[in-house]
Design goal:
It is built from 15 helices and three strands. With 270 residues, the protein is mainly alpha-helical.
């Protein structure tokens, strides 16, 4: 009964947390009994069961409850199978969504070697625009997960493709995450490649794309500033913030704070 499997999956994270706290008494219980259930339910025939399994997986990763070996040998292979070109459309959309969400919770090496090649393929998926839309909406997070070298070598060409996609929602999503992508690149790439690309978005034929680009203009310009002198920094939640210098704080101690926060990306691309 699907409702039973769904309810069971919702109980996995609290049980796993309990086992972690009692590890001396249950050293291998999670890996031997619970982890195989989580992996199996990622491919369940019922949509609600799969959704519960995906949510459980993210909670387990967030609490660092899954061993690196299990991530690489059990979780990633399943997601790669589900996101393969010949996979069922519904499974593929779910797989790319979970790949994007878990990228920030994994090591850079794991993301770059196991998930990044598939993500690049999905950015060019000509069959499902929903897949490209998810990739575009989460592009900044993937760039942040793999770092500058992989971003410039592999992701920037895909970003150019998405920025010129025939579906305006894709271009809008790219405009919304432009700052996060720019922040991950070198000053030269920002100047020579991303600036002309941004101009194309701000001149787009669709007013929704232009509006999103104008809203990202300030955050994009801020990535050209010197972080040491401008006080720019990226928070853990993915937002770019400007911290006043000590001199400014001392000279304006009676004035309200002028901190400005820019969202690095949008959770949804319309």
């Amino acid at each position: 009964e699907p409702t039973v499997r769904t309810e069971l999956m919702e109980q996995i994270p609290p049980i796993a947390i309990f086992l972690q706290e009692s590890r001396p008494k249950f050293p291998t219980a999670f890996f031997e009994y619970l982890m195989p259930i989580v992996v199996r339910y990622l491919t369940d025939v019922n949509n609600q069961v799969r959704k519960a399994g995906q949510e459980a997986l993210l909670i387990l990763l967030e609490h660092d409850l899954i061993a690196q070996s299990d991530i690489e040998n059990k979780v990633c292979p399943i997601l790669l199978d589900l996101s393969a070109p010949d996979s069922d459309d519904e499974y593929k959309v779910e797989a790319v969504n979970i790949i994007c969400k878990m990228a920030s919770m994994l090591s850079r090496t794991t993301v770059e070697h196991m998930l990044l090649p598939r993500f690049c393929e999905l950015c060019s998926d000509g069959k499902l625009f929903q897949v490209r839309k998810i990739c575009a909406a989460n592009f900044g997070d993937i760039c942040n997960a793999v770092g500058q070298e992989a971003t410039e070598r592999l992701l920037i060409p895909k970003f150019f493709e998405l920025c010129s996609d025939s579906v305006w929602g894709m271009r809008k999503a790219c405009a919304e995450c432009f700052m996060a992508v720019s922040y991950t690149t070198s000053p030269e790439v920002r100047r020579s490649k991303l600036s002309p690309l941004f101009i194309s978005l701000i001149s787009d034929t669709c007013r929704w794309v232009r509006q999103a680009a104008f809203q990202s203009l300030g955050p994009f310009i801020s990535t050209f500033a010197n972080p040491s002198s401008a006080g720019l920094y990226i928070r853990e939640d993915g937002t770019l913030s400007i911290r006043p210098s000590t001199q400014d704080v001392n000279s304006n101690s009676c004035q309200p704070s002028n901190n400005i926060t820019f969202m690095s990306s949008s959770t949804n691309a319309t």
